[in-house]
Automatic annotation (TrEMBL):
Protein name (record): LysR family transcriptional regulator
HTH lysR-type domain residues: 5-62
Family stated for the protein in its record: Belongs to the LysR transcriptional regulatory family.
Any Gene Ontology CC annotation: cytosol
CDD domains in the cross-refs: PBP2_LTTR_like_1
Organism: Sheuella amnicola
Domain of life assignment: Bacteria
GO molecular function, one term: DNA binding
InterPro entries, alphabetized: HTH-type_LysR_regulators (IPR050950), LysR_HTH_N (IPR000847), LysR_subst-bd (IPR005119), WH-like_DNA-bd_sf (IPR036388), WH_DNA-bd_sf (IPR036390)
Lineage: Bacteria, Pseudomonadati, Pseudomonadota, Betaproteobacteria, Burkholderiales
Pfam families hit by this protein: HTH_1, LysR_substrate
Keyword line: DNA-binding, Transcription, Transcription regulation
Amino acid sequence: MANHFDLTDLQLIVNIGDASSLTRGAEKSHLSLPAASNRVKNLEDHFGTRLFHRNSQGVTLTPSGEAFLRHARQVLRQIEHLRGDIHEYARGIKGQVRMMANTTAMTEFMPAVLSSYLASHPDVTVELRERLSYLIVKAVSEGAADIGIVAGRPAASDLEFLPYQEDRLVLVTPLDHQLGGLDEVSFADTMSFEYVGLSEWSAIHAFLIQAANSIGHPFRFRVEVSNFETVCRMIEKGVGIGVVPERAAQRYAQRLNIKLVRISDEWAERKLHVCVRSLEQLPVFARELVNMLTRDVPQQVLTSTQFKSKKT
């Protein structure tokens, strides 16, 4: 049966779905609104089903539209993979890697890895977004991301998981705080104290709210800032306490008057994994990034698993 749609149609549906707007989807696809509307209508006529619900606020995907969007993403990524593999035979690869990572990976591991990777791949761009682990798994599974770095190993039979790094979340307090004298504390026992944390755009912000909700405690940050160093500086001045990745906390403890306390909850021990749909099907330049991530593990694993802090 002859095809009645093309790659422009596929990209248009992806753009409309991402924007929840026919107008913005058309603009991103470099099409006029009438041309985009006509393409959507032709697709719906061809398949005999509506792809979008239209309303005054924009458009939302129907179940048929969700299925079309999922397959469209996969087809477009396969085209990108084809281009990437062919460019491997030419001097200078051109391509894009879409990557998602949790807060710890974003702040502690990715800067060094990407610096090295991009230096050796000058014609490759990396789109890196911070997300909660379960959203990363969903994005990789649906083809919205090529590579993910997640905490734990969530159930996802259609994905491949590669061991990456280990890290902990620890409680950071001022030197004279009553919790600072403890070796270990449960998250529940910290709920009566004011918290300093990253802004709501960060994955760890939503993660801590979920952790508090799971034990039946309301939770909010008294102060929200943009990075872990500022979190620790606020804590040093007595503004509150906070939960920070251990590596970052140990680094700031070298020059700030703060204490680091183990969190006894199971979720504080974090084993990070790289996840992909299929390592073999990634374009060459994306596989090389995965290889660099996994090769990097022996150099970045802590030399001791014992909890250490300069401030005791």
